[in-house]
């Protein structure tokens, strides 16, 4: 069929419109491309910054500055460790943290060392934590009470007979510390009524006080007692969100 001049113009215009449409579908708008490029650049920059933190923390660890190394690691947002490309950083982060905590705990256990020098020889006596010897019922594994609260990371607490403390968290992290125990007559300490399985609060009379020094230098006191159902319970006695207790642990 013969194509007239007008038909040729219409056909040409239609082809141009189709070509423009295909170009838009294939390559996307410049605005979207710029946004994607900017986001990628920011992620790469953040990763490079965290890699530098790991390198600095590693140097401090090798030099024996374990607490400073942990402080350096705290500059990394733990949530970022699950992002794409963070596999190596995540592994080194937890390896360094574990190494730092190991040596800090060793230092804490030996902090009571006493050296006496005599004319003919020198004797070194290292203090050992025997404070739990008479309080074995307060050692062992504990579970975090009220762990259904979505904004809490605490999961498990383990207190060894030598005073070593490890708190495992829901996000895969762990806190390490060293504890001593002593009798306590504290009264009116805030806790949960764990025998009811509810979040009802109550006050208790403590039997013992467990002082924990965490590897980052922070200290915390847990008050231990026996609940009505016979279970062993620890509470820090601090309020949380006005109507809850900050930390309560029940023996597993």
TrEMBL record:
PROSITE patterns, alphabetized: PROKAR_LIPOPROTEIN
Keyword set, alphabetical order: Signal
Signal peptide: 1-28
Name the record gives this protein: Lipoprotein
Protein species of origin: Levilactobacillus spicheri
UniProt lineage: Bacteria, Bacillati, Bacillota, Bacilli, Lactobacillales
